[in-house]
């Protein structure tokens, strides 16, 4: 299978990115190293190419009807210039994907979905579009750079008239940055203040955009960052990753996404199944944990075991925290064990390590 590439692919090769297969794209996992890139985002500013993400546009008088039908959050609360975290479910309550809904204008929205799920998600939303809202997949037309870190606003300010430090969390504006029309969004996947910059690539010199951002950020410790640091950063915050922590076999109520599941907003796909689950109660729960022995590193797929060594749960994401110097992660455990402060046992290769259930985020911002 030929891997897809983003508009910045040649740049990644030129600046020494180590390229790997991710979601069907050839993407950089690291440049100078995950620790350096992680620290840059926590302390200064880092830039991620996340152009593999999908952008769908929903327009017309029935746009809101379609979004309300396919997402669990209440999109009617949005106003132009605001974004909302949400997810989509199948009829049985299993998660199709998590996504961000942007209200661009009256009757005009952008849905941003995970790169690995673009085709699946578009087909799913299309299958639910009984009200004939205008639905367009423009994923291939857009580039997306995530500029993240406490110095992100300062690093970008010289490139735009937009007052970057006034762009709020889950808010956005449109304007020129590096001479290019962009959606400038106060969102990210790192837990740091930062921005996601969406722009159409037609007629745009992406090399120039990249160079301008790095020139503007050179006094602020700017670094190119790969998928490795993106994963360690999101895990320190306890942010879910589709395919690991949330899948078609998990539902929002067990996946710590009850807060975005609005049963009072009217009908949506999966509502009936989720209401039944809510009434009967979950059998398991997604929890965060920190390893008690700092030498132990948990990984995706490791078993949670009871005192007899029987598997009772599974680690969905795990890493060595670069900030804390301890192993941490997320796992599904039986509901009765999910209380904060409880000890769980994780089978790590041929030994068993103990961990303490800890409510994310694991680092306090």
What does this structure look like?
This protein is α+β, with helices and mostly antiparallel strands. Among the domains are: 9-52 and 140-236, Probable tRNA modification gtpase trme, domain 1 (Gyrase A, domain 2); 283-365, Aminomethyltransferase beta-barrel domains (Elongation Factor Tu (Ef-tu), domain 3, Beta Barrel), CATH 2.40.30.110. The protein contains 8 helices and 19 strands. A 6-stranded mixed beta sheet has the order 10-11-12-9-3-13. A 6-stranded antiparallel β-barrel has the order 14-17-16-15-18-19. It has a 5-stranded antiparallel beta sheet with strand order 5-6-7-4-8. Strand 11 (180-185) and strand 12 (194-200) form a beta hairpin. The protein is globular, with a radius of gyration of 21 Å. The termini are far apart.
Quick structural overview:
This protein is of the alpha+beta class and 365 residues long.
The CATH homologous superfamily of the domain at 9-52 and 140-236 corresponds to Probable tRNA modification gtpase trme, domain 1
Total count of helical runs of at least 4 residues: 8
Given the C-alpha coordinates, what overall shape results?
A: globular
The percent range for helix content is: 10-25%
What amount of the residues lies in strands?
25-35%
- For the terminal residues, how far apart are their CA atoms? 42 Å
CATH-defined fold name of the domain at 9-52 and 140-236: Gyrase A, domain 2
User: Main β-sheet, in a few words?
Assistant: 6 strands, mixed
Top CATH class of the domain at 9-52 and 140-236: Alpha Beta
């Amino acid at each position: 299978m030929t891997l897809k590439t983003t508009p910045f692919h040649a740049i990644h090769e030129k600046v020494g990115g180590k390229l790997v297969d991710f979601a069907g794209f050839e993407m950089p996992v690291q440049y100078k190293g995950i620790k350096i890139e992680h620290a840059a985002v926590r302390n200064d500013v880092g830039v991620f190419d996340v152009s593999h993400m999908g952008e769908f546009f929903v327009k017309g008088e029935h746009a809101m009807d379609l979004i309300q039908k396919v997402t669990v959050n209440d999109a009617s609360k949005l106003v132009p210039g605001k974004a909302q975290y949400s997810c989509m479910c199948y009829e049985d309550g299993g998660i199709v994907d998590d996504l961000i809904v942007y209200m661009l204008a009256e009757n005009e929205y952008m849905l941003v979905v995970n790169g690995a799920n673009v085709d699946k998600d578009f087909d799913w939303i299309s299958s639910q579009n009984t009200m004939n809202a205008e639905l367009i997949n423009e994923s291939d037309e857009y580039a997306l750079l995530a500029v993240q870190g406490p110095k992100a606003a300062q690093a970008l300010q010289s490139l735009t008239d937009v007052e970057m430090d006034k762009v709020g969390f889950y808010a956005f504006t449109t304007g020129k940055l590096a001479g290019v029309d962009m959606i400038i969004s106060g969102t990210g996947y790192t837990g740091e203040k930062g921005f996601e910059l969406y722009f159409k690539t037609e007629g745009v010199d992406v090399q120039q955009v990249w160079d301008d951002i790095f020139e503007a950020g050179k006094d602020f410790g700017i670094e190119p960052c790969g998928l490795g640091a993106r994963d360690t950063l999101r895990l320190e915050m306890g942010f879910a990753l589709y395919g690991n922590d949330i899948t078609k076999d998990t539902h929002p109520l067990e996946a710590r996404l009850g807060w975005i599941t609005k049963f009072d907003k009217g009908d949506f796909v999966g509502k009936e199944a989720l209401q039944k689950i809510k009434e009967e109660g979950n059998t398991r729960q997604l929890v965060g944990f920190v390893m008690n022995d700092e030498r132990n590193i948990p990984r995706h797929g490791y078993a949670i075991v009871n005192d007899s060594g029987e598997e009772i749960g599974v680690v969905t994401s795990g890493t060595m925290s670069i900030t804390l110097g301890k192993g941490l992660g997320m796992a599904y455990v039986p509901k009765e064990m999910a209380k904060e402060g409880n000890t769980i046992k994780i089978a790590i290769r041929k030994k068993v390590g103990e961990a303490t259930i800890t409510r994310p985020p694991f680092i306090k911002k």
